[in-house]
Amino acid sequence: MLLRNYLRTLPGAELLTELDAEHLAAAMRVEDHPAGHVFVYQDKLARDLHLILEGEVRVCHYGPTGRTHTLKTLQAGEFFGLLSLSDGKPAVASCMSVGPVKVASLPFSAYMLLYQPHSDIGCRFQYVLAAQLARDLRHRHDMLRELLAGIYAGRAPSAPDCQLE
Amino acid sequence: MTPLQTCRAILADQVGPDQVDAVLEHGQWLELQPGDRLHGDQERVSAMYLILEGQVALSVDVAGHTLQLGHLDARNWIGEVAYFSGSYTACSTVTARTPVWLFRMGFAEFSAFSRAAPEAACRLTHVLVTMLIHRLRVTAQNPVLDADGQLLLPVNQSLPEAGHAVPGQGILDFVRHLLGSK
């Protein structure tokens, strides 16, 4: 799979040019990781923007009740690490591979050039960011709906525990 | 201030004074009274809205039960999740808490605006991105039961004031402007 071609198939990437995708792919490093690899730690700053190429990554939140639960299981084609990189605050959740994964990672310095809309490529990349964040927020509301249904039906919330070490 | 003046002032911060007219060409005004519902959770929607004045409450609903998700104040947008996720369905119920003035931009109009004024659309999308980031942060915590037994997330989903404007770049911006590039 050619990363530059794959990038242009992602939601919101319709406006990226071939050259944009080439530059973006050149700035990313592709690595394989085993199951249980932690990419982002809750309450610490994220260092890279990650894109899943193969496999799954679980997003785990440690809440005030002392329980760690799964916020979302990310699939190939999804970005993570966005929140902490964008606002410079510690991550709200940890991100860990479920099984073996192949991930493309973009360093913080390169990400900041894309996050600000002052360049042509940054401008077009805003739509990629918006598409990922909108899907994340939609999923968050789905989880809250499930939680609500579970509480009023008298059953435990369905969000599984994270096996986070 | 009239709704038009308010809208101009907010959009000047969000897309820059020179791009305000490009946005205004693609929208209309809408007024809500307290208790009016803009749209229901998971209903089909076709527009995004900028709150000019007033406050709206957000909630998700399941089988007659409601989880309050806090509120949104003036200067914030509604409906961008439906557009950017490609689902075109609302992810919450939006109800006016006070008299509310809105600027309505249909999804088709937003797409047309993106083609007609890509620089302004990109700046506006950046503002929407910062709002989405803020909402994801504040909704990560667990909901609680209030004294009346109502389930709620005690959060303000409004983006703090400083996050609304696209950051300027000082001297760098000036030099780019001189050279005629973005």
Key features of this structure:
heterodimer, A: 165 residues, alpha+beta, Jelly Rolls, 4-stranded antiparallel sheet, 5 helices, B: 182 residues, 6 helices, 10 strands, 35% helix, globular
Overview of the structural elements:
The complex is a heterodimer of chains A (165) and B (182). With 165 residues, chain A is an alpha+beta fold. In chain A, 38% of the residues lie in helices and 25% in strands. In chain A, the strands form 2 sheets. Chain A has a 4-stranded antiparallel β-sheet with strand order 1-8-3-6. The longest helix of chain A has 33 residues, at 120-152. The two termini of chain A are 32 Å apart. In chain B, 35% of the residues lie in helices and 26% in strands. Chain B has one domain (3-179): Jelly Rolls (Sandwich). In chain B, helix 4 packs across helix 5 (118-138). In chain B, strand 9 (144-145) and strand 10 (151-152) form a beta hairpin. Chain B has a 4-stranded antiparallel β-sheet. Chain B has a 4-stranded antiparallel β-sheet with strand order 2-7-4-5, with no helix packed on it. With 182 residues, chain B is an alpha+beta fold. The mean pLDDT of chain B is 86. Chain B has 6 helices and 10 strands; from the N terminus they run ααββββββαββααββα. Chain A binds chain B through residues 11-12, 61, 63-65, 71, 82-83, 86-87, 89, 92-93, 116-120, 122-124, 126-127, 129-131, 133-138, 140-141, 144-145, 147-149, 151-152, and chain B through 41, 60-63, 65-67, 69, 80-87, 91-92, 118-119, 122-123, 125-126, 128-130, 132-137, 139-143, 151, 153, 166-167, 169, 173, 176, 182.
In short:
With 165 residues, chain A is of the alpha+beta class. Chain A is 38% helix and 25% strand.
Helix-strand blueprint:
The complex is a heterodimer of chains A (165) and B (182).
Chain A lengths: L2 H5 L10 H10 L1 E5 L4 E3 L7 E7 L2 E6 L5 E7 L4 E2 L1 H6 L6 E4 L3 E7 H8 L4 H33 L13
Antiparallel strand pairs in A: 1-8, 2-7, 3-6, 3-8, 4-5, 4-7
Chain B lengths: L2 H13 L4 H5 L3 E5 L4 E3 L7 E7 L2 E7 L2 E8 L4 E2 L1 H5 L8 E4 L3 E7 H10 L1 H21 L5 E2 L5 E2 L17 H10 L3
Antiparallel strand pairs in B: 1-8, 2-7, 3-6, 3-8, 4-5, 4-7, 9-10
